[in-house]
């Protein structure tokens, strides 16, 4: 069984100085994710549920009948406000539907409310890797899917951090470019 742990970019905000994920590329990115998951025989996906990469991958995983496990840093309402509906695109209804189905299936994990935002998102990255390891069991493999423009945006880039940790574990990293 192949389990994917995913991290990636959200759509560019309207005032973005550097384009990392133009909203108009969401169909292209979704198609690339679908092709990768099919080629690798992916059976499960572990990710958060932010707008952009996360929600696109979760939608693809659902279409392909894959198991989906979602890690949120804090309650869904706060996450929706800070990481879903704060960027262009109509992501809110998609988030609501995916969260409801994942919670019903017992695959929604909500971490602590007591961490600062950066600590909370960093904890999500590590929990994504931990949960992928748990889901793979003894016979499976974990692969990482980075959905990004291909370059870290700085020392605090959690997408890049997740990839570095995964590589240190010897896990393959597949990249889906957003540009």
Number of helices: 6
Give the quaternary arrangement of the chains. Answer: single chain
Q: Assign the CATH topology.
A: Rossmann fold
Shape: globular
* CATH first level: Alpha Beta
The unreliable regions are none
Strand content: 15-25%
**Beginning-to-end CA distance, first to last residue:** 30 Å
The helical percent reads 40-55%
H/E topology pattern: EHEHEHHEHEHE
Structural class: alpha/beta
Question: How many DSSP-defined strands?
Answer: 6
CATH architectural category: 3-Layer(aba) Sandwich
Radius of gyration equals: 15 Å
> How would a crystallographer describe the biggest sheet?
6 strands, parallel
- Report the mean per-residue pLDDT as an integer: 95
Q: How are strands sequenced across the largest beta sheet?
A: 4-3-2-1-5-6
Please describe what this structure looks like.
By secondary structure, this protein is α/β, with parallel strands linked by helices. The protein has a single domain (2-177), classed as Rossmann fold (3-Layer(aba) Sandwich). It contains 6 helices and 6 strands, in the order βαβαβααβαβαβ. It has a 6-stranded parallel β-sheet with strand order 4-3-2-1-5-6, with helices on both faces. Helix 6 (158-168) links the parallel strand 5 and strand 6 (173-177). Helix 5 packs parallel to helix 6 (158-168). The radius of gyration is 15 Å and the shape is globular. The termini are far apart. The model has no long low-confidence stretch (mean pLDDT 95).
